[in-house]
Amino acid sequence: MIRALALALSLACPGPARACDTALLLAIDVSGSIDRGEYALQAEGLALALSDPAVADLLLAGQSALAIVHWSGVGRQALALPWRRMLTPSDVAAFARSSRALPRAFTASDTAVGEAISFSLAQFAAVADCRRRVIDISGDGPENAGFTVARARRAAEAASVEINAIAIEDMGASSPITAFYDRWAITRTGFVLTARGLQDYRRAIREKLLRELGKPAG
User: Fold this and answer.
1) Which of 52, 65, 150, 156 has its CA 20 to 30 A from that of 87?
2) What is the pLDDT of residues 41-55, one digit of tens each?
3) pLDDT at 131 over 70
4) Is the CB of residue 45 less than 8 Å from the CB of residue 2?
């Protein structure tokens, strides 16, 4: 009788919820160099990566929080998809669907990488309980407006926020965008992955998510 009562109480009063391990903000370039088709490739690639079973498992294991920022020129940054906790498989599936259908926030503007980082940094106040805070920025060009990227990176490091990047390069052998993000944008503990054209974005974002969330991509 006593054992049955104890079991009933344990089911009625579950233990404390697991704390959020990682708050991951996905900052997506929607500047003028990204046309309609290229934006669709980014949205589809992100949705497919989030739906990948290995990525979804890691999001759920860490009770992670996700949000999406769209960014382009000076003063053109928007919280396109607010923070959502990944507590159940349906949460991950719903976020992936929303990211695929997300309308583009801006068109025909410059590339203000520093302002994108500063805006993204301000969003973490809403997820202060998460152990790690990561900005996952993707872009296909170096900063050509605002010119605040070095200052924004210093602010992120002072706030213990990690910045990683996907550099979307042309199909040739050179890697100027990768070099820019590596030198100016990522934090000391961050990393850059290169996508060779937007067709390669899905592979790169999946690999980056697995690395950020703690599992080798192989």
Assistant:
1) 156
2) 999 999 999 999 999
3) yes
4) no
Placement of tokens 């969330």 in the chain = 213
State how far Cα 102 lies from the chain centre: 15
Distance of CA 47 to the CA centre of its chain: 12
Count of beta carbons in the 10 Å neighbourhood of residue 84: 16
CA atoms within 13 A on the CB side of 80: 25
Q: pTM for the complete prediction? A: 0.90
Helix axes 53-61, 201-213, angle to 10 degrees: 30
Q: What is the DSSP string of 76-90?
A: -EEEEEEEEE--SHH
CB 162 within 8 A of CB 132: yes
Q: What is the mean pLDDT of residues 22-38?
A: 95
Helix (H, G, I), strand (E, B) or coil at 114: helix
The model's pLDDT over 171-190, given as tens digits with 9 standing for 90+, comes to: 877 899 999 999 999 999 99
Cα dihedral across residues 151, 155, 160, 166: positive or negative = negative
For residue 70, give the H/E element and its range.
Answer: strand 65-71
Least confident of 6-20, 77-91, 163-177: 6-20
142 CB-near residues (< 8 Å, 6+ apart): 111, 113, 176, 177, 180, 184
Q: 10 Å Cβ neighbour count for 154?
A: 11
**CA-to-CA separations, 145 to 8, 25, 111, 120, in angstroms, rounded:** 62, 22, 6, 17
